Amino acid sequence: MNALTQELVELLSLEKIEENIFRGQSRNLVGKRVFGGQVLGQALRAASYTADRPAHSLHAYFLFGGDVNAPIIYEVDRLRDGKSFVSRQVRAIQHGRTIFTAMVSFAQSEEGLNYQIQEPDYPAPMQVKSEAELKKMLVEFVPENVRASFMRDRHVEIRPIDPMNPYQPQPAAPSYAHYIRTHDRIAAEIDEVSLHQAIAAFYSDFTLMTTALRPHGLSWLSPSLQCASIDHAMYFHKPFRVDDWMLYDMDATVSANSRGLNFGRMWQNGELVCSTTQEGLIRLREIETQ
């Protein structure tokens, strides 16, 4: 596999310490704090190790920022093992405190009512520039001290449909979309549903929270802004592959009380395969209450 894909798989493959307890390593993906998508993916994988069927929903809260220089311990509580549903609670622990908690529900596929909204009409992935190409066009705007980290390749390939310059954001509609996939195919010997779902959870945190910033003419790089994910929900509707292009279509419905509410939908081959919801902190420091 491509080195970045291999690193991503390793990041989302946890070490079993003892029954229901797992350890995940951390990587510096977005700065001093652990990337939320890493914790989402690792927590989902930890829960999946204790279940005998795919996940269908995840509801999580980010409680404290994670330390990228320390591993994370995941404790799984087996709340229910039913005929239709299996329920797990996961706690991510670092330096003796819980930094993240999630409820995960699992269910087998079954026949039933079937409906979905219409997929949005966007250019095909190969008709838009990759994020790597767009970054090269922005080099002149990037301060020298952060240029290396800004330009480095992500562990996934992203192709934005309506990109903006994060150093010169302008007010825009509260919507955003990109195509996303791993750089390489998932190797056959590790090709498991739980890994695809964990990588999709990792995917799902890219840019979702910042959708609510667009109508305000702000970006995650705006110097006056304090951003942080508060919670995250994810629903798995149908089977998918993370090594094939997925369209991630996002929109925000409201920003109020220094928070923004964002929704996302992942499409593959015309099928709505996942849905996401996230509320994020979007606080302007200069008007912060003292």
UniProtKB/TrEMBL annotation:
EC number(s) on file: 3.1.2.20
Catalytic activity: a fatty acyl-CoA + H2O = a fatty acid + CoA + H(+)
Residues of the Acyl-CoA thioesterase 2 C-terminal domain: 147-281
The entry's keywords: Hydrolase, Lipid metabolism
Sample GO molecular function, one term: fatty acyl-CoA hydrolase activity
Example of a GO biological process term: acyl-CoA metabolic process
Family: Belongs to the C/M/P thioester hydrolase family.
PANTHER family associated with the record: ACYL-COA THIOESTERASE, ACYL-COENZYME A THIOESTERASE 8
Name by which UniProt lists this protein: Acyl-CoA thioesterase 2
Species, as recorded: Acinetobacter tandoii DSM 14970 = CIP 107469
